[in-house]
Specification:
There is one protein chain. This protein is of the alpha/beta class. It is 27% helix and 24% strand. An eight-stranded mixed sheet has the order 1-2-3-4-5-6-7-8. Strands 9-10-11-12-14-15-13 form a seven-stranded mixed sheet, with no helix packed on it. The longest helix is centred in the C-terminal third of the chain and has 16 residues. The radius of gyration is 18 Å and the shape is globular.
Length: 281
């Protein structure tokens, strides 16, 4: 397993200022920032996991930074958590040098702070699916995004990042995932979601954690977040065929090991839990 470095605690308090004269955090944001701090872990060469545990949601919100000639941040985080994430990014690179702000689908934890990042990084563009750009991001983002077709590659320098359109996996018509072909890291968005504040990187299996989370979310006010469509299984089979060595998970531990088998096992769990008519056997 890749033995990357971890720094925690003080990262979120370094107070990167840059050109953020426009940013005036209110009392609620300041209070949240004092309560939360980001932990940075290098989970693969020049691939950094930025993790903040939110005590109200009781889950981790993870962004991933690829340090390269054209740095890429995958997931922006919430607007309210922007300064926490910004300080963590500033502990790795100058945030003004970011070139790509990528995300899977249109949701606040995925892209809520995209305009803050575009303000900080004058050369940056949002990078998302063609559907996401046409339906939402063209209107939402302060600068025109880079729409990515299925299979399109962003060459950031040493990393070759292939975009994979995955409609409704994990959810959303506009959903897509990213494979770093240089390191065989799959950026999974909400796939393999598991709650709590677990370790940054594990070589143990994570499918049981994800299965328990899906099972627990079948009822309640936030239920049924993951649809099961005629395309779900074939999409997961396609992802497994990529044979990733690392899985960069948005909520919970990242995984290093047999990513193909983990995805195949997750596909079975999803089919068993979600692939039957409601009330059916």
């Amino acid at each position: 397993m890749y033995n990357g470095s971890t720094c925690s605690g003080s990262v979120a308090g370094q107070g990167y200022l840059g050109d953020l004269g426009w940013f005036r955090p209110n009392a609620i944001i300041v209070k949240e920032r004092m309560a939360m701090q980001a932990r940075v872990t290098e989970i693969a060469p020049k691939t950094y996991r930025i993790s903040t545990f939110h005590p109200d949601y009781r889950i981790q919100f993870n962004q991933f930074l690829i340090k390269d000639d054209q740095p890429l941040l995958w997931h922006t985080g919430f607007k309210r958590m922007f300064r926490i994430t910004l300080d963590a990014v500033a502990s790795i690179i100058d945030p003004a040098t970011l070139r790509w702000i990528g995300f899977s689908h249109f949701e606040s934890d995925e892209c809520g702070a995209v305009n803050h990042w575009l303000e900080v990084a004058p050369r940056a563009q949002a990078a998302c699916s063609v559907v996401g750009a046409k339906v939402m991001v063209n209107d939402f983002a302060d600068r025109a995004p880079r729409p990515l077709a299925d299979g399109e590659v962003l060459q950031t320098g040493g990393h070759r990042l292939r975009f994979l359109a995955t409609p409704h996996v994990p959810h959303g018509w506009d959903a897509g995932l990213l494979l770093d072909e240089a390191e065989q890291t799959l950026f999974c968005s909400d796939l393999f979601f598991h709650p709590g504040d677990p370790e940054p990187l594990t070589g143990s299996e994570i499918v049981s954690r994800a299965k328990d989370a899906i099972q627990g979310n079948l009822v309640g006010p936030m239920a049924k977040d993951m649809p099961y469509t005629p395309y779900t299984d074939s999409t997961l089979q396609r992802l497994a065929a990529l044979r990733p060595k690392s899985l960069a998970v948005m909520h919970g531990s990242s995984f290093q090991g047999n990513g193909q088998q983990a995805i195949l096992d997750l596909a079975v769990a999803i089919r068993d839990l979600l692939g039957k008519p409601e009330g059916g056997s």
